[in-house]
Automatic annotation (TrEMBL):
GO terms for molecular function: ATP binding; ATP hydrolysis activity. GO terms for cellular component: late endosome membrane. It is an enzyme of class 3 (hydrolase). It comes from Anabas testudineus (Climbing perch). Residues 6-84 form the MIT domain. GO terms for biological process: cell division; endosomal transport; protein transport; vacuole organization. This is vesicle-fusing ATPase. It holds the Pfam family Vps4_C. The keyword Cell cycle applies. It is found in: Late endosome membrane. Residues 78-99 have a biased composition (Basic and acidic residues).
Length: 439
């Protein structure tokens, strides 16, 4: 129960908040800022130390958040005012304002703010060359994304770029990775990366408004690419037992992607799924190009081993990479990356389990130009100059880890099994024969 002292604190906080609002309205912003800050301090003290009910605490916290937002606005305004006198007064608290957003729908603004998090501001640093194989898919994406931006005069009259591309194939074959390459290479495009959580709302009717606003935001920022990963979660087949909300989202997608009165010039919808047969037939038709991203072929698998190893010290030859490519029939790109990551850990495991180390010549890891004679590397007990010690006895900067060898790769390959099964591949091949094209 609250004591008199606590009650006084709460009343003081309410009093300060009222005073802050009055000063704010009277445009005495410095005094208003001080009162807002003090009120928040008192409120937080009451929440922290007094035994309030959960609902009361929640209500006070929400109020504090509002006051802090307003205080932040005032602080920003006052600091700008100190640097240069502003042309317009700060927008009043609670005023919808029609200075910069004249005629703007506040609801639309709210939805667009929600969706602004889906815009990929920082470009992922993945080039076309980082994607091994998949030449057909890369060409189709260049045709749909890069060419219309670089040579717009090519796409006039009846020759129009693709508006919808669906990438489908087994898990781990590089569908999302390709989309990242598109985001990197399409320099001038706005890239929206959408998941179902961005578009599904608990309020009835809000989900389809989010879909509508996603497309209007894309039109404002065109040329733009809307990438929907796992598109089947949003656009599965319509059936009698599905929810009303799911059906509405699908309908809105259909209308926005190719409906009457919607100009989608400069917008590409890129979808990715590994169960394309569950997609609604009308959604499937909206994806004009449906590209099968298959499991990598032998030469692509060899390239992947090289790509994933990168600059890590290793003793593998070109012949070894070809052998690894042959041995990994049925493995996806993701499976190969797991094999390589496990193989990269093998030298670390050797260091952990070693009982003897020997001195060798080599470069210091923090100064590659400096060659020293006293680095320590794991060795077998029978080797000359072997010293009995564990990795705990080795000074941090003196350890020279063993290089990754073919034996490490083969050991990791034995321990890692492919994740794609035959039944799924059969279904995907059937879908490709019926509706798709090879990637």
């Amino acid at each position: 129960k609250m004591t008199n002292n606590d009650m006084n604190l709460l009343l003081k906080a309410i009093d300060l908040a009222s005073k802050a609002a009055e000063e704010d309205k009277a445009k005495n912003y410095l005094e208003a800022l001080r009162c807002y800050q003090q009120a928040v301090q008192y409120f937080l003290h009451v929440v922290k130390y007094e035994a309030q009910g959960d609902r009361a605490k929640q209500s006070i916290r929400a109020k504090c958040a509002d006051y802090l937002d307003r205080a932040e606005q005032l602080k920003e305004y006052l600091s700008k005012k100190e640097k240069a006198p502003p042309a317009k007064p700060v927008k009043e608290s609670g005023d919808k304002g029609n200075e910069s957003d004249e005629g703007d729908d506040p609801e639309k603004k709210k939805f667009q703010n929600q969706l602004s998090g889906a815009i990929v501001m920082e470009k992922p640093n993945i080039k076309w060359d980082d994607v091994a194989g998949l030449e057909g898919a890369k060409e189709a994406l260049k045709e749909a994304v890069i060419l219309p931006i670089k040579f717009p005069h090519l796409f006039t009259g009846k020759r129009t770029p693709w508006r919808g591309i669906l990438l489908f194939g087994p898990p781990g074959t590089g569908k999302s990775y390709l989309a990242k390459a598109v985001a990197t290479e399409a320099n001038n495009s706005t890239f929206f990366s959408i998941s179902s959580s961005d578009l599904v709302s608990k309020w009835l009717g809000e989900s389809e408004k989010l879909v509508k606003n996603l497309f209007s935001l894309a039109r404002e920022h065109k040329p733009s690419i809307i990438f929907i990963d796992e598109v089947d979660s949003l656009c599965g087949s319509r059936s009698e037992n599905e929810s009303e909300a799911a059906r509405r989202i699908k309908t809105e997608f259909l209308v926005q992607m190719q409906g009457v009165g919607n100009d989608n010039e400069g917008i590409l919808v890129l979808g990715a799924t590994n169960i394309p047969w569950t997609l609604d037939s009308a959604i499937r038709r909206r994806f004009e190009k449906r590209i099968y991203i298959p499991l990598p072929e032998e030469h692509a698998r060899s390239s992947m081993f090289k790509l994933h190893l990168g600059s890590t010290p290793n003793s593998l030859t070109d012949a070894d990479f070809i052998t690894l490519g042959k041995k990994t029939e049925g493995y996806s790109g993701a499976d190969i990356s797991i094999i390589v990551r496990d193989a990269l850990m093998q030298p670390v495991r050797k260091v952990q389990s070693a009982t003897h180390f020997k001195k060798v010549r080599g470069s210091q890891w923090n100064k590659p130009d400096v060659v020293v004679e006293d680095l320590l590397t794991p060795c077998s007990p029978g080797e000359p100059n072997a010293v009995e010690m564990t990795w705990m006895d080795v000074p941090g900067e003196k350890l020279l880890e063993p290089v990754v060898s073919m034996a490490d790769m083969l050991r990791s390959l034995t321990n890692t099994k492919p994740t794609v099964n035959e039944q799924d591949l059969e279904k995907l091949k059937k879908f490709t024969e019926d509706f798709g094209q090879e990637g």
